[in-house]
Each structure stands twice: as structure tokens, then as C-alpha cells.
Fold this sequence. Notes:
Layout: H1 10-15, E1 20-23, E2 30-34, E3 40-48, E4 51-60, H2 65-80, H3 85-95, H4 99-110, H5 117-136, H6 145-152, H7 160-179, H8 203-206, H9 220-228, H10 233-244, H11 248-252, E5 259-260, E6 265-268, E7 279-282, H12 285-293, H13 315-325, H14 333-345, H15 350-356, H16 364-369, H17 375-389
Antiparallel strand pairs: 1-2, 2-3, 3-4, 5-6, 6-7
Helix pairs in contact: 4-5, 4-7, 5-6, 5-7, 10-12, 15-17
Amino acid sequence: MPKHTRELTAIEVKRITEPGRHPVGTVPGLMLMVRDNGVKGWVLRAMVKGKRADIGLGGYPGVTLADAVKRARELREGIAKGIDPRAEKRAAKAAVMTFQKAADEYIKLHRASWKNVKHAQQWENTLATYVHPVIGSLPVKDVDNPNVLAVLTPHWNTKNETMVRVRSRIELVLAWAMASGHRERGLNPAAWRGNLDSSLPKPSKVNNRQHHAAMPWQDVPDFIRKLAQVEGMSARCLEFTILTACRSGESRGATWDEIDLSGKAWNLPAERMKAGRPHRVPLADRVVKLLGSLHRIEGETLVFPGAKENTPLSDMSLTMLLRRHAPGVTAHGFRSSFRDWAAETTSYPGEVCEMALAHAVGDAVEAAYRRGDLFAKRAALMQDWATYATRPHEAGGTVTPLR
């Protein structure tokens, strides 16, 4: 004869405090489980497809005795019909659009529109490191301000630049969830203005961003002379980078079909530019000479190929070159050297200098009316920069400002 458990009342259930499993009667296998820390929850022990299974029914007192009894009866009726409640629970859980699933969908949808693989990797890495451990398993419809703050607050003052990007990425994922029907429309809990700006200090107050280490413009000619004595593709690529004031990624990825030696121009397509706009770089005489001196390999499309065929030089190749010959300086920092030289020693207008760096100039209205790219003026500027940067050494000489 099976042993029957006395049916407990709601008051008796409330008084149970001893850790362990406590049968409560009414439905066979229904128990109140008390953990060592005092937390209580309902469990139904039953045979499912020939195997014993413990099925959680929720925490107490959120789920009352009456609720647990009702749910346990429904589950036993389903089990008797051959239904596995655990499989149903797994399927229901899989159907929930969590924040992590929403983020994965957002990345999958937008990956093709991002300029390079690195951007997608940055998205995935920052979310995996800072976001998913905190809110990744939450239903995206339930993410609220406290959840977003739980991600941002621990690192806001120490890793502000990264957290600013993380906040923006959370906002974009939640906006996608709203537009896709996975979340009710309304105020985005990751929005900054009128929302998180009242809970977190302004980035400008805590951002300790370090600028790229730059060489003083007065030292560039000596460095160029030293660089000219260094053999190898990395040295030529760095010299090209300095004399064109471009980003190192743009020079490392330069292809011969972008170079117009007769027109003294380097035509970069939009997909290779940070701002997503095509850009023409004037080539000074020294740069044209440098390109003409390079040994072109048949079938190779890259101007500065790496060790492997049709593979550009790595960023580390320029970094290691600078570590040996100009410790503490970065390739990107030479853009700052160029800009300081232009500001302090020339009379070229600021917009000409900024356009030489492929920076946006003016607002959207001004950009709409400016159809030209000031190429002729920039050509003169870059010729002056190359003349200065490659000037011969003059013992005891003085710096003569150009123009």
C-alpha cells in the first residue's frame, strides 16, 4: 500500500523552516524545498518516461500552496498522457527573446553594413565581456534602467570610453527589439539624454582618454632621414603614411589601382575610409618618387604587401618598427605632428588642413553646398609638408615657416 502524506494547510507550510524536502500532501510527489539559506520553493517529484524527475514549480511564497497544488495536478495529468513537462519548459525558454539573442540578431543584420570585420568583433567582444554576464539571459522586453545601470556603473569612471560605446550598443539593440515587436515601444532605458544622464556623470568629466603618442613636428625631418636608411616594406609604408598624413590602415591597405602616379593622386574608395566617404590624397613629388622605387610583384595588387601573397602588412609591423627607432611614438600620432606643423608654421586655412586629414568640415548644410574637395590647395599643402619633412640636415640651422 502506498504511503499517504497528510495534507498540510497554508499556515503549516508557512511554518516550515528546516532545510530539506517536505511533502505537503494533496498531490503525490509535491514538496516544499527549503534551502540552507532559508529560500523556499516548490518541487514535484514524478516518473517521466520511466525516469524520476524533479520539476520546479516556482518559489514560495510567490507561488502559494493552492497555486502549487493546481500546477502539480496539471503536470501529473499531462505526464499520464505522455507529455514531458521538462521538454515543454525548455521549448518555452528557447522561445523567449533574451537580450543576448536580440544582440546576436542585431549584429547579424548589420554586419554587412559595417566597414570592416574588426567593428563586428568589437561589438561581440564588448557585449560578451560587459553586458551578457549581467543582462544577457534576461528577456529583452524586461530590460530596464536598473539593469542597464548594473552594466555601466561598475566601469563608468574607470573605462569610460568603452562604457560609452557599450551604452550606445545596448540602446541600439533595445531599439531594434522595439521595432521588431519583441519589446513595447517607449523610452529606451539605455538612452542618454533625459534618462541615464541623471544617473551617471558626463563622459567629459570622467573620460581619461589617452591621445595617440605623437612626435613633435620639429623632430620629423630627423626621423624621416633615419627612416630612409632602414630597408624593408614596413619602413617604406611608414614613410608613405607620414608624408600623406593618412591613417596607417589606409596606407597598409593601399592598392595600385587606387594610385594615379601621372595625376599625383591616391583615390581611396568610401569603404576604406573611416567616415565612409571617398577621399583623394594629393601625392607630393617625394611620395611619387617613393612609389616609383618600390619593387612591384606580378599579380600583387597591394602597394605594401606583407609576407603572404595579397596580404597587407600587419599593424604590428609598423608598431615594432617605431619601437626600434622612435620608442613611445605611434604611427597615428604623425597625423597630429602634421596638423601641429600646419597650424604653427603655415598660413593654410583650417578647413584645408582638416580636409587633408579626411576630417569632416562644417555642419551638414555647409557640406551640402561645398562640392569641391579643395584638392589644389591640399596638393600645395602636402607638397610643403613633404618638402619640410624630407629637408636635408642643416647643422645649427633654423626652422623657416613655409608660406
